[in-house]
Amino acid sequence: MAKASSPVENGKQKVRSAEVGTDILRALAELSPSTSLSRLAEHVDMPASKVHRYLQALIASGFAEQDPATNHYGLGREALRVGLAALGSIDVLKVGAVPLSDLRDELNESCFIAVWGNQGATVVSIEPAVRAVTVVTQIGSVLPLLSSSTGLVFAAYLPDRETAELRDRELAELNSQIEDYAPLLAGIRERGLHHVHGLLMPGVDALSAPVFNALGQVAAVMTVVGPTSMFQADEHGPAAKRLLAATQAISWRMGYAADR
After folding, report:
1. Among 129, 179, 181, 126, which residue's Cα sits nearest to residue 154?
2. Cross-strand partners of 65
3. The listed CATH number (3.40.1380.10, 2.40.50.140, 1.20.1250.20, 1.10.10.10) that belongs to domain 7-86
4. Class of domain 92-253
5. Predicted pLDDT at 134
């Protein structure tokens, strides 16, 4: 007569079963939009028969689905609903609060986060430098698109339709042409950050990098500003490395996968 499992053993089996189920769900996401059973089994390093059993349970609960035409598997409606709910709960200001404060502490320069608003790049969070000489940007300040490092990073990553009106207005004011900025924006996308020396304010340097959301869209721009005499806004320097580490950490928390 087989020995009955103890409550503790049953609990451990349920936990392990849940872990396997989440591993398969994660693999479905990584292999999206759809994948074969054999490829999925290889991806999670499990026997196909075992993966198939879990897939049937996931399909029954709506977290996976099978295409009757190809027999391939993909994420189901319930997985989409849960994913959207998770995305909706992510606030770039909340996620970026600690990295922004840490960056200020590391560099002792004023750091801020800007989002794209109705008027353009709008400062929504600031951590000022802790010293007698500081460069202060006010919350709610709207920065120019083409004459600030923050604005230029937004211009590099936002769809053209989002920036066209403001861009054309500023180009007219600057008596410049879009051809002058196209290579600059391409360079920002290639490097992943941008710096300016006294462009917006004489004697003040700025260094900016984008934050991305789960869809790969620019959600915010993080900027470090400081006096030229004290802040080295070199795109290959230590401040740039720390800035990129901060924005990449926030982007990761926002659900962004750089290798997509």
Report:
1. 181
2. 74
3. 1.10.10.10
4. alpha beta
5. 61
How many residues does the structure list for the chain? 260
Instruction: Band the pLDDT of 93: cuts 50, 70, 90.
Output: confident
What does the pLDDT look like over 123-149, one tens digit per residue?
Answer: 989 999 887 556 667 888 889 999 899
Find the helix packing angle between 238-253 and 92-107, rounded to 10°: 160
Separation between Cα atoms, residue 233 and residue 239, nearest integer Å: 7
Of 7 and 79, the one with more pLDDT:
79
Cα separation, 248 vs 260, whole angstroms: 14
User: Which tokens belong to 141?
Assistant: 């300040």
CA–CA distance, 242 with 244 (Å, rounded to integer): 5
**Where are the extended beta strands (E) located within the chain?**
64-66, 73-75, 110-117, 120-127, 142-143, 194-197, 204-212, 218-227
Contact 250, 95 (CB under 8 A): yes
Q: Please report, for the chain, the start and end positions of each structural domain, with discontinuous segments joined by +.
A: 7-86, 92-253
